[in-house]
From TrEMBL:
Stretches assigned to coiled coil: none
Keyword set includes Lipid metabolism: no
Residue span(s) of domain EamA: 3-132, 143-278
Transmembrane segments: 31-49, 61-82, 88-108, 115-136, 142-162, 174-195, 201-220, 227-255, 261-279
Keywords per UniProt: Membrane, Signal, Transmembrane, Transmembrane helix
SUPFAM superfamilies listed in its UniProt record: Multidrug resistance efflux transporter EmrE (SSF103481)
Listed GO CC annotations: membrane
Name assigned to this protein: Threonine/homoserine efflux transporter RhtA
UniProt keyword annotation of Aminoacyl-tRNA synthetase present: no
Recorded family membership: Belongs to the EamA transporter family.
Organism encoding this protein: Aeromicrobium choanae
Signal peptide extent: 1-21
Length: 293
């Protein structure tokens, strides 16, 4: 069942790029609306069936939920800004460093990853770099864009690490409602400060935003948040790297775009890295079980 959910999540987030690119609205505004709409859609269930769990959180629980929501908002803001300053290829490759940031943060917390996990992560990141065809520029503007893309990867890492912690005490619905609500509030402020319009678009644009919300937010991020209760942040972050080839494959299937052979090679590298990390994590869990017994 988890494998099926993982596939659904990857397909969902993979549709984010193509759908947002096809939407005639500012990317930051789309990021706000996808979170705000998801919050509104989840509200009836969250505020009835899960109200006591949400309101019953202690100060530490609320702090963690706020950090997760703020990290998600910062990820969106940095990623959108980076695309205006550097190439899409460079931004894609650099934001994929999320998995390495997860490993690094875990190490700082005293949870050092096994060499196989680090190797698998590097293999997967190499796959993303191969697909995106990294073309790093040394111009000041491009370097700022590269830095923002890296920051986007860091905030995404914080989002999944903190999310995994919050999911220990909150259900998927309660957590996603809280997290998306905080994220949308922060993005609303960002849009107002930056002067980004929040409306005035065609009916087709609004339909596309709804599609982004359903596919990328509900079927993508929400399923990912569900899996954080049963998968490590490293495995989830590696799984998210499949968004890059996933978006390319969807574009090829529905838009008739032809894919270079390097795309398929990159997919093999990502899957190989994911397999190595998953196998290593499984061995580690079995070892912990034997020690406990």
């Amino acid at each position: 069942m988890n494998l099926v959910l993982a596939i659904v999540a990857v397909v969902g987030v993979s549709m984010s790029g193509p759908l947002m690119a096809a939407t005639a609205a500012p990317a930051l505004a789309i990021a706000f609306w996808r979170n705000a709409m998801a919050t509104g859609l989840l509200a009836p269930i969250a505020l009835t069936r899960h109200r006591s769990a949400i309101t019953g959180q202690d100060r530490h629980g609320w702090l963690l939920a706020f950090v997760a929501g703020a990290a998600l908002a910062a990820h969106f803001a940095c990623w959108v800004a980076s695309l205006k300053l550097t190439s899409v290829a460079a931004a894609t490759a650099l934001v994929s460093m999320q998995v390495l940031f997860v490993i690094g943060i875990d190490a700082l917390r005293g949870r050092r990853a096994a060499p196989a996990v680090v190797g698998g992560a590097l293999l997967a990141v190499a796959g993303v770099a191969a697909i995106s065809g990294v073309d790093l520029s040394l111009s000041t503007e491009a370097l700022w864009g590269d830095a923002l893309a890296l920051a986007g990867g860091l905030f995404a890492a914080i989002y999944v690490i903190v999310g995994a912690r919050v999911r220990e005490t909150l259900s998927t619905t309660a957590y996603t409602f809280t997290c998306y609500g905080i994220c949308s509030a922060i993005l609303l402020v960002a849009c107002l400060v930056a002067g980004v319009p929040l409306g005035g678009w065609s009916a087709q644009a609004w339909l596309m935003i709804v599609a982004v919300m359903v596919c990328a937010q509900l079927l993508g991020h929400s399923v990912i948040n569900h899996l954080l209760a049963v998968m490590s942040p490293v495995v989830v972050s590696l799984m998210l790297l499949l968004e890059v080839p996933g978006a390319a494959l969807l574009a090829a299937a529905f838009l008739g775009e032809s894919l270079p052979w390097v795309t398929y090679g990159g997919i093999v590298l990502i899957l190989a890295g994911l397999a190595v990390v998953t196998a290593s994590s499984g061995r580690a869990r079995r070892a912990e079980t034997l020690v406990a017994d």
